[in-house]
Amino acid sequence: MVSIRKNQRDLTGAEKRRFVTAVLALKRRGEYDEFVRLHTHYYVTDAEQGPRTGHMAPTFLPWHRRFLLEFEQALQRIDPNVSVPYWEWTADRTPAAALWGEDFLGGTGRAGDHQVTTGPFAYRTGDWTLQGKVLAVKYLTRDLGRPSAPVTLPTRDELAWAMNETVYDAPPWDSTVPTGFRNRLEGWNAGDGVRWRNHNRVHRWVGGHMLGADSPNDPVFWLHHAFVDLLWDRWRAQHPRAGYLPRTPLGAGDPQHGRALSLEEPMPPWNVTPAALLDHRSHYRYDR
User: Fold this and answer.
1) R_g (Cα) of the chain, nearest Å
2) Rounded to two decimals, what is the model's pTM?
3) What is the CATH number of the domain that holds 121?
4) For residue 50, what pLDDT is reported?
5) Structural domain total, the chain
6) What is the mean pLDDT of residues 251-259?
7) CA 198, CA 184: separation in Å to the nearest integer?
8) 158 found inside a domain
9) Is residue 194 part of a domain?
């Protein structure tokens, strides 16, 4: 069955309940926390050794596409009618947006400790206790918009700055590359003095647990990355001749050899290549 991923603002009340129920069931099974651990493990920075597949590399988009698909399929083993909705953060830009409602993801954290106290993922419900040896707290935290030092969600113009790029990625294939769609969408400092853009800015705006490598602890992670995945689709449609780069493995003398993976090199932990993830239509489609 091919799933249809919908904009969260178009979900019916029943669809919201089914999604939340499936996520909570995955949490009770212990499977949800495995996704958190996986993302944390593969969050490798420029300064660290070994392959960079999850972030700061060309595989940012295909790696998260597979990660998101694995999560969606886990939910569908609980409820075959559930798919992951997306949050179009250029349109739904305030804490008053529907996704932060009591009936869906809950709202921002309270003053002081930023603990989320509303909605089905509030610690008080007993259904959402965070796991991990290094976690300082067991409750979900958010600080929507960071009122103490305000940050805004990306605008359509800021997103267009990435979408209008005509190449997918470029050397040195990390967080410092000033050109290329991947890094402009991922949102690291591209040499223009702006520290956070697009994808990264959304993590900063939500705050709390969305700031760290264990960001999937907040279920909004999946809605955020579903929109990022949709943006990759839109970019490919806008630039049909622009393919994934690098196309071939980097040479042994390249500082990114074995770290930034090419089109046909398998990505851990699934041993699947970026090439195999360019077309997702046999698994899911977007509503627009």
Assistant:
1) 18
2) 0.97
3) 1.10.1280.10
4) 87
5) 1
6) 93
7) 7
8) no
9) no
